[in-house]
Amino acid sequence: MMSVLEYANDVNKSVGEILKMCEELNIKVTNETDLLTEEDIVILDNADFEAMDDIVEEIIETKNIKVEDSINKQKLKKKQEIKINKKDFQQKKKEMYKNRTKLMTNTTNDKVVLYKENMTIGDLANNLGVSGAELIKKLFSLGIMATINNSISFENAEILVLEYNKELKKEETADVTNFEEYEIIDNETDLVQRPPIVTIMGHVDHGKTTLLDAIRKTDVASLEAGGITQAISAYQVKVKENYITFIDTPGHAAFTEMRARGASITDIVVIIIAADDGIMPQTEEVIDHAKAANVPIIVAINKIDKPDANVERVLTQLTEHDLTPESWGGDTLVSLISAKTGEGISDLLDNILLIAEMNNYRANPNRYAVGTVIESRLDKHLGPIVTVLVQNGTLRLGDPVVVGYAYGKIRTLKDDKGTNLTSTKLSQPVEITGINEVPNAGDKFMAFESEKEARNIAMKRKEDFKIKEQTPNKAVSLDDLFNKIKDGSKEINVIIKADVNGSCEAVKNSLEKLDIEGVKVNVIRSSVGAIKESDIVLAKASNAIIIGFNVRPNNTLKEYAKDQGVEIRLYDIIYKVVEEMELAMKGLLDPVYEEQILGTAEVRKIFKFSKVGTIAGSYVTDGIIKRDSKARLIRDGVVVYDGNINSIQREKDSVKEVKKGLECGITIENYNDIRENDIIEAYEMVEIK
Fold this sequence. Notes:
The chain is α+β, with helices and mostly antiparallel strands.
């Protein structure tokens, strides 16, 4: 219990506001020193005054109160000329919160009574539908002295319940510490339509933010440096009596980083492509990331108002990326738009709503909210400020929440326009305060019944996180594929990076032809060039293996891949790629030789001699370079030659090895096309026992 004044200070409201809320909710207090019960506090914490009109409407209908028209109805409400019993309103309010789905397995059997931890005699009496005094008398006859607020043991409660021809069962509560993995099955009757969540992605300067500006009728782009989106933002807009939630990201990397952390927040991806530029390298990456997310894709061809716009070329390019437009007999919806003039935007919104209708996105507003952090920051006055997307349930002012491994009680709740709310709508992005730490983008959140429960779960999650942080990530490897297949997996995700397009296509085609007992290889990206950080991020998010053909990641990327639990397999013979994948899918992989990197050297100067050939004046940047060891020559991340080190010279002397930090001259056996800034990587093959 706490006083009205203490509660007002706790929720950062005036005493007058709290007293007014209490009057509306029929809570019997008159001044700041009066005490609020725990039940009063729960009702106040969850007060949803936006819902008041709906409740009043329902009471008007059920009581057959006649009102001439909507204007008079509003006047009557405001003047309180309709004498609705406040108890009706309070009872309806309580019913709303009782309907919020609990995280437990419950039963509707009238013969079963659920026993909860720390259950009181009063609680048991309510569940049995008898008076507390009746149970106290029965306990007295058993030699047990108790009051209505005393806890009752399961054994004693079981004896009492049997006297009423009922069975007592312990409440089975689910362990929701890892609520990201916890699935709650909602009753069909609780599910309602929810707005689709749409992410807009595309090449830089192809018009993502300008499109959102046109939809929102605002001018966000002019407020951002150079017109480029600087931070993740989310907005909910009303379109033809429907709502759509848009997420504007600074790039596909952020989108996939969140996926890599288990945050699947998008229902539909809109890929925006400028009609004058067409599909750019970054657009290709966007397409790969959107496909890997396994969500519907809509293509918005922008800037059709420009003189050099070439829509047909973009449509042709789309087919080359397995996105055949619907107008060409495919299943990809394409909208031709000008974000600048507004042309075609209505068609794009119709396409979004069409997909939403086809996929029937639904959620349960009568349960504790769950969702994902979009962004967060620390304000020196307000503390952590967190933007979250409510994906299911209703988040209310005062709700205790766990966010990542932080926790708190919602102090303020604002929509994307900065308006203060008391509760959220489905699929709504909101800004909250009251959390004790700044969480990370992509963290999941969940609301709970009590602050104590939220705190305990957050502390447990933090301990689990520390343990997980100390445990190295286990890579998804070829050796694991057979076990995945045995567990029912029917697709193996692969990313291919190769030195030239011919090799890339050959490896892709060869792998996609494999079919072992119905299991196939799914190539989620195949591209030419060095392995990049974005490849590793995509691999982690998609549980994929990276296959490098005649390309080499540098040491930094190797370490990053290891930290992220992503395996990189490197080859220079196509049949070897296919053979190893096929054997892995059959569970027949032989023991392999692992490559052990000895060291790397950077070529800084070239010396050419007719009798010796090319000598690479080099500086050893890492490890050790040994004579006669294997070596590959790497140029801009791509392997240009793989052979052996022929000789190493220090000043005028021939040496067997050179360590990090020393200069030397290196020759490579049967190869002379060495250039400045090339990297020489020395390695040897070691058998894995």
